[in-house]
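Repro:
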Amino acid sequence: KVAKEIECLGQRWDALLKKAENRHKQLESILVVTQQFHETLEPLSEWLTATEKHLSNSEPIGTETSKLEDQISQHKMLQSDIEVRKKNVDRAISNGMELLKQTT
């Protein structure tokens, strides 16, 4: 009977160690994804806030040709910046989805 209990204890111990190791690997993996998510999200969120504020505070559309050309030029620069940031948005969404998948 003692031998059986020792064997059972050893098996339970090994199972516990394996579960603990698996949990550790899972936590480490999630940590990496979480860091990537926040490293992408925080600057993107700051940029979005600043850009939204800039657009809200834009001058009224001008009626003079030179003013309109200036506004169009500025808006083209904004459009370019928006397109450049798209990959960051996609990365943040992808990292967020991966994080959700790993934590639910």
